[in-house]
Amino acid sequence: MQVTMTVNGEEVTRDIEGRLLLVHFLRDHLQLTGTHWGCDTSNCGTCVVWLDGEPVKSCTVLAAMAGGHEVRTVEGLEQNGELDPVQRGFIECHGLQCGFCTPGMMMTARALLDANPDPSDEEIREAISGQICRCTGYATIVRSIRWAAAEQAGTRTTAEEPGRTVASTSGSAS
Amino acid sequence: MQVPAPFEYRRVSTVDEAVALLYRLGDTARLVAGGHSLLPMMKLRLANFEYLIDINELHDELGYVRAEPGLIRIGAMTRHRELRESAELAAAFPVFGDAERVIADPLVRNRGTLGGSLCQADPSEDLSAVCTTLDASCVIHGMDGERVVSMEDFHRGPYETAVGDAEILTEVRFPVRPRGSSAYETVERRAGDWAVVSAGAAVWLDEAGLIADARVGLAAVGPHTAGIPGIAEALRGQRPAEELWARAGDIAAEACDPVTDRRGSAAYKRHLARELTMRVLRRSVARIDAHIGGHIDGQEV
Ligand SMILES: Cc1cc2nc3c(=O)[nH]c(=O)nc-3n(C[C@H](O)[C@H](O)[C@H](O)COP(=O)(O)OP(=O)(O)OC[C@H]3O[C@@H](n4cnc5c(N)ncnc54)[C@H](O)[C@@H]3O)c2cc1C
Ligand code: FES
Ligand code: FES
């Protein structure tokens, strides 16, 4: 069958099998290997991409289901040659070690900050709770996302330790 | 690498189209909603179909939470995330918010639907327990129009429902009765995992403060997702009290049928069934006292 979708703002059309998973479509048919493929069982979240603006596990979505819809991958985070604040936060605050979980973490982080520009630590941890990192112990990931939030809000001060500049733990965790 | 066996992908954009296509293709076809139960099963080759009919375009038609006097209607394509974010639902039934915080993880909740949860009929499915607790009924569409079945009749057994080959679940209806509230509790091993055991409760008081009705639904403790009638019988007409919750907990522990697996021993799960039943009944009544729950359009019903 033929499928047409928008990936990172560009329309793409390919001949695929109905059973092809979105993660393999992105990696093997579009060579967008930034999206990682890990557990295969909807548990690890390294395969997270956006489908119509919402982060989803692309190993549990058929490529065909994305037909006519908009997909955004980690390759689409950078805008006009500039890294997204989330990407810079991960660099600044050591948000990765091996980097395997990182694309998925960053896609979820971007979606979180779009919906909630000043999340509490608890809200950040909740947002990434469907994703596994075997290296960092999550603390630096949380700090990286906070750094990005502060950077966007213009409240980050370089004198302080990265990510420790926002006291945003008062948010109402539901 | 896990991939489903080959199938043909079809997409429909109305309920009528879905029913007509199901009718034509018979039991070789299966609907896919969020796909977060079905696709994992197909990847493991526990399920194979010749045709998969994608109903995600029905979200416009079947993605809603509507409040009416005495009734809440939820469309089958409403996603977990939308259930969690619905203020109307939270005002009527706090049990939904409790449950949606612990079902899977935010990413799965962006895709999984109410209809898929109920139709999957996995005994560990949390929304089945929630719907049982709230005495919901299911609207099923087929070639001859629609029929409405109670949750008790909807679930025929593990992975089996009243939905026929050429039918689709379109809506779930929840009666909103006066002086009622509800709660849900779960014990899970780690964030995002399926429950070791979950319990939901809904309690309604009469004008004198006695229990008019009470329902408890358990998940992950055996093949039956149906409510436990013994609890309602033991609680009706009584004044809310700790001893009563303890008695209900005993009935729940006795009525359930857990198995030992890697999530825990049968004895531990029975203990949880008792303890969680007590907690959710206690919390439901505390919420009635605090006027949390049982509201439609900002008014207590
Ligand atoms: C990692 C992970 C963890 C999870 N943890 C939990 C958890 O803790 N608690 C929990 O309750 N659930 C959990 N789930 C399941 C999740 O809630 C699923 O989203 C849900 O069970 C199924 O919804 P779906 O829309 O994805 O259904 P699908 O997978 O699309 O469909 C499931 C079944 O229902 C049928 N179906 C779907 N919609 C209809 C309809 N309208 N009419 C007739 N038949 C229909 C399909 O044909 C299929 O047989 C988890 C899932 C994953 C992947
Ligand atoms: S590969 Fe998709 S969740 Fe692990
Ligand atoms: S950085 Fe290695 S898994 Fe997260």
In short:
Chain A has 174 residues and is an alpha+beta fold. Chain A is built from five helices and five strands, in the order E-E-H-E-E-E-H-H-H-H. Chain B has three domains: 46 residues, Uridine Diphospho-n-acetylenolpyruvylglucosamine Reductase, domain 2; 114 residues, 2-Layer Sandwich (Uridine Diphospho-n-acetylenolpyruvylglucosamine Reductase, domain 3), CATH 3.30.465.10; 113 residues, CO dehydrogenase flavoprotein, C-terminal domain (Enolase-like, domain 1, 2-Layer Sandwich), CATH 3.30.390.50.
What does this structure look like?
- Chain B: Residues 2-179 form the FAD-binding PCMH-type domain.
- Chain B: InterPro entries: CO_DH_flav_C, CO_DH_flav_C_dom_sf, Diverse_Substr_Oxidored, FAD-bd_PCMH, FAD-bd_PCMH-like_sf, FAD-bd_PCMH_sub1, FAD-bd_PCMH_sub2, Mopterin_DH_FAD-bd.
- Chain B: It comes from Streptomyces pyxinicus.
- Chain B: Keywords: FAD, Flavoprotein, Oxidoreductase.
- The complex is a heterodimer of chains A (174) and B (301).
- Chain A has 174 residues and is of the alpha+beta class.
- Chain A folds into two domains: 2-76, Ubiquitin-like (UB roll); 85-153, [2Fe-2S]-binding domain (DNA polymerase, domain 1), CATH 1.10.150.120.
- Chain A has five helices and five strands, in the order ββαβββαααα.
- Chain A has a five-stranded mixed β-sheet with strand order 2-1-5-3-4, covered by helices on one side.
- In chain A, helix 2 (85-92) crosses helix 5 (139-153) and helix 3 (102-115) crosses helix 5 (139-153).
- The longest helix of chain A is centred in the last third of the chain and has 15 residues, at 139-153.
- In chain A, 50% of the residues are buried.
- Chain B has three domains: 8-53, Uridine Diphospho-n-acetylenolpyruvylglucosamine Reductase, domain 2 (2-Layer Sandwich); 62-175, Uridine Diphospho-n-acetylenolpyruvylglucosamine Reductase, domain 3; 180-292, Enolase-like, domain 1 (2-Layer Sandwich).
- Chain B starts with 7 loop residues before the first strand and ends with a strand.
- In chain B, 52% of the residues are buried.
- The chains are: A alpha+beta (174), B alpha+beta (301).
- At the A-B interface, strand 4 of A face strand 1, helix 2 and helix 7 of B.
- Bound molecules: flavin-adenine dinucleotide and FE2/S2 (inorganic) cluster (FES) (2 copies).
- Residues 30-38, 40, 76, 103-104, 108, 111-113, 115-117, 119-120, 125-127, 163, 168-169, 194-195 of chain B line the site of flavin-adenine dinucleotide.
- The site of flavin-adenine dinucleotide (FAD) has 30 residues of chain B, from strand 2, helix 2, helix 8, helix 9 and strand 10.
